[in-house]
Amino acid sequence: MKNTLGDLNNHLFAQLERLSDEELKGEKLAEEITRAKSVNDVAARIISNGSLVLEARKLVEDKMDADVKVPKMLEGGK
């Protein structure tokens, strides 16, 4: 199984379409809202992880020059 950010994008839009269904009411709507919150939480973690990987690759490509500015998120929250 190989998922991509494009797949994530498709899942998010599919979730949006389900939430936009005007015929969805009551308990079914509540279930869909709960599912959407879970999908959102997982998507946020995937995106955060992707950002971290990207930052790490940038640092590797810069070969950690003495002149390279370390991103604030890697400075220990300063």
Précis, in short:
By secondary structure, the chain is mainly α.
Question: Percentage of helical residues?
Answer: 55-70%
**N to C succession of SSEs:** HH
- Low-confidence spans: pLDDT under 50, at least 5 residues? none
Average pLDDT value?
A: 86
Number of E-type strands:
0
Describe the main β-sheet briefly.
none
Percent strand equals under 5%
Please give the domain count.
Answer: 1
Task: Count the DSSP helices.
Answer: 2
Shape descriptor: elongated
Give the terminus-to-terminus CA distance.
39 Å
Radius of gyration from the CA trace? 19 Å
Structural class: mainly alpha
Structure, described:
It contains two helices and no strands. With 78 residues, the protein is mainly alpha-helical. The protein has one domain (5-74). Helix 1 (5-19) runs antiparallel to helix 2. The longest helix is centred in the middle third of the chain and has 36 residues, at 26-61. It is elongated. The N and C termini lie far apart (39 Å). The relative contact order is 0.09.
Main traits of this protein?
single chain; mainly alpha
Helices and strands in order:
Elements: H1 5-19, H2 26-61
